[in-house]
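Why does residue order matter? Because the sequence determines the fold. Keep that principle in mind as you read this record.
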Amino acid sequence: MAVPSALRANYSDLFGSSMLPVLEELFRTEFEQNPGVRDMLFRTRPTDRDIWQYSELHDMPLFSQVSEGQDYTFSRPKAGNNKTITPVKFGLGYSISEEAVDDGKFDLIGDAIRKMAESARESQEQSAMDVFNNGFSSQTTADGLSLFNASHTTPSGSVTFRNQLATPSDLSYSSLQTAIQDFEKQFKGDSGIFKLIRPKYLVVPSELRMYAEELVGSEKITDNNFNNLNSIKKEGLTVVHSPRLTDSDAWFLTADPKDTGLTIVSRKPVETKAAAADSVGFLNDAIYYKARYREKIDTTHAYGVFGTPGA
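Structure:
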């Protein structure tokens, strides 16, 4: 059994074991104090099962003219690619000796609980940003291709579309303009129907944050001296930045989460448990505090997201 990580010798102030419920309040306050960006970009799908399954459906064909008295043509959408997502458990514990609880220092023990809450939030945020970090390689959608790819197909396989720039480019006015135009034209269904998904967020690493805000927020175009109006501002894009994005040149466009395949399958949200005074460890008189959650962050389809690794 693990040796308690907080010992009485390190503390001197009174800390009654009856105050253990305070640790839960400390954890929740810290965890909820700094909401991350993942809830803006990903759609959470609660589940009460050990797996969550996604199935694509073919689009309906376009409407055809129906003459007077003519029978309608009936269509039954067929299933396309499938993907099964299995939530996994994440957790961390902190052990405190009984003596440290009886005689120890509340501030330091409380600070450790706050840091555990920070770790829980950081773990979830990093997992979400890794979807983008790995989006050109190991992060795949239901069609088996990387999230950002030039060869995605519709469920029937009859239409190919891309959700990355034809030529990888660094962020600029012209490349962002091209990405916005591609965003409107590339996302098609089996019948050739345009999905008409609009970009909502410009996702960038911290290195590009200020430049990105200038591109989407300035009245005039920032990349030339001609004093032209900035038409990108009318798109209403919101800049989302994260230091957890590892490529300083890569940037992304995403739609509202309901229109993308960016998915958090949540089996259990973050929950904590603290051992009461009457349930200390039998072998080493330790009191335990732990936090855990069960979820899987994944991608189902490629619609509504667009990316480039930069030039």
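The chain has a mean pLDDT of 87.
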